[in-house]
Amino acid sequence: MKQYDVIVIGSGTGGLSAALTLAQAGKKILLIEQHNLPGGCSTSFVRGRFEFDATLHEFCGIGEEGNWGDTGKLLMDQYRLPIKWYAIPDMFRVIGRARSGKHYDVRMPVGVENCIRKMEETVPGSEKPMRTFFALAEECSQAANYFYQHMDQVDSKGNIKTSKLYFMKHFPNFLKVAERPYNEVLRRIGMPEDAIDILGTYWAYMALGGDKISFVQMAFMFYSYCKDKPAICEYNAHGLAVTGIERLRELGADVWLNVRGEKVVSDKDGNIQGVQTSAGFVSANYVIANMNPQTAYTSLLDKNIRIPEREIKKANASIHSSRFLNVYLGLNKSIEELGIQDYAIFFPREINSPLNFEESCHFEGNYFGAAVIYNVARPDISPEGTTFMVLTIEYNAEVWDKFSQREYVSKKQEAFKGILDAFEQETGIVIHDCIEEMEIATPWTFAHFLNTPQGSVYGYQYTEWDTMLSRLMMMRKDQPIKGFKTCGASGARGDGYSQTYFNGNDMANLILEEMEGR
Question: Residue 250's pLDDT band (boundaries 50, 70, 90)?
Answer without folding.
Answer: very high
